[in-house]
């Protein structure tokens, strides 16, 4: 069980680093491109959508990393099944239609904890992007930009 816990924590750390890198890249891109936007509404929409897509891709990559771990541990016969199970864990759906063996069962809850945290991080980043869009849109100098 200790080895599974160590594997789970290492996977969480790798995924956290990935999410942080993507988040910083997305927010830097977002904050650095306001000068190039002819229309705040359309530009804001484009930038917020871009941030959202980057975060979604980041979450999907994390689901895939967990799935590869499950597959390499021999928990699933196909990567497709491992991806499905990983997605259910990450999103904390908990269908229970597919369960892992007792040997590696602790990895499911670890991924669920990680998924809940990463979905929260994604939500916070989107809230920041929306907030910045509204702040810039309603600032005194925004009137002459639209």
UniProtKB/TrEMBL annotation:
Keywords: Ion channel, Ion transport, Membrane, Transmembrane, Transmembrane helix, Transport
GO biological-process terms attached to the record: monoatomic ion transmembrane transport
Any matching Pfam family: Ion_trans_2
Record-linked InterPro entries: K_chnl_dom
Residues annotated as transmembrane: 52-73
Residue ranges of domain Potassium channel in the record: 62-130
Coiled coil ranges: none
Record keyword Mitochondrion present: no
Highest taxon, organism lineage: Bacteria
Gene3D superfamilies: 1.10.287.70
Protein name: Two pore domain potassium channel family protein
Organism: Parahaliea aestuarii
Taxonomic path: Bacteria, Pseudomonadati, Pseudomonadota, Gammaproteobacteria, Cellvibrionales
